[in-house]
Amino acid sequence: MVRLATGGDLEAIASINAKVFLGDRDNPAGALAWATSLQRAFPIYQYFLVEIDGTFAGYAGWQAHGGLHRAEPVIELDQLGIDPRFQGKGWGGDVIDACMHELTEWVLRTNDRIESHINFVVWGYAFNLKAIKLYKRKFGRKVCGSRTQFGDRRELMFRKRVPVVRSARDE
Predict the structure, then answer these.
(1) For the whole model, what pTM was predicted?
(2) What's the rounded Cα separation, in Å, for the pair 169 and 85?
């Protein structure tokens, strides 16, 4: 259902982006340029594709912050785009769970400096009540921060700390 996207998936990602996000609404060429630029930042930026019954249904874009070898890595859900035909069926939460699992495994394979937790964060517009409800359910009910950017749109941050237990390193 959820897999790491490849360059061949960018047009599908752009088609969803142009349907669900205001920045490139009805502008597939602009959405493709945006998705391509982010895909080039791999592994700092990682897209995951969502397939439901063999049909492309959406994607999620995640960004690592502050380096790939932090003691407490921070990975942000930057975009969650579900095709309108599949919205309202609970897929968004399943996608977040699957991506967090895949990203946790990736961090454990690539980061030998992690000490205690992986921090997953998301920012959501305060007026987007459906998204905020989902983020509270998946990242924790507590608002961990707020900001105003992109005009007067207030955003709320949610964080989920995933504990990592490793054996002590040989010094």
Answers:
(1) 0.92
(2) 49
